[in-house]
Amino acid sequence: QYPREAVDAVAEAVDVLVGAGDRGAVVARGLHWLLQRQHADGFFYSPGVSRLSQDLYNAVHPTWTAISALQTERVHGRCPRCRRWAAYAAAQAAAAGLQGRPG
């Protein structure tokens, strides 16, 4: 079932990296790969998947995540709930020993 999840995985990884402030080569390659997965019907499909799934979630989720990832100019942290969530996530990451950006 991995081919159906590939667009989702790449899109979510790109979205996380962009949200963390990364605009490097990995993000650019991910965005390029995602753009190649959009079909004439507007939906994004993983390699080997050429039509919509019978399951609504699996039919829509790859396109939903790809569209979110491609919106690289979104402003993160403007809403109070987003700021609280970011602070909470940072505190949990620090408590788990995941401090700072990798590399």
Structure overview:
The chain is mostly helical and 103 residues long. It is built from four helices and no strands. The longest helix is centred in the N-terminal third of the chain and has 18 residues, at 2-19. The chain starts with a helix and ends in an 8-residue tail after the last helix. The mean pLDDT is 80.
What are its keywords?
single chain; 103 residues; mainly alpha; 0% strand
What is this structure's SSE topology?
Blueprint lengths: L1 H18 L5 H11 L20 H15 L9 H16 L8
Number of strands: 0
Number of helices: 4
Distance between the termini: 31 Å
Q: What does the largest sheet look like?
A: none
Low-pLDDT residue spans: none
- Basic shape: elongated
- Specify the structural class: mainly alpha
Helix content: 55-70%
Helix-strand string? HHHH
Strand content: under 5%
Q: Return the average pLDDT rounded to an integer.
A: 80
Computed CA radius of gyration, to the nearest angstrom: 16 Å
Compose a concise summary of this entry:
The protein has 103 residues and is mainly α. The protein has 4 helices and no strands.
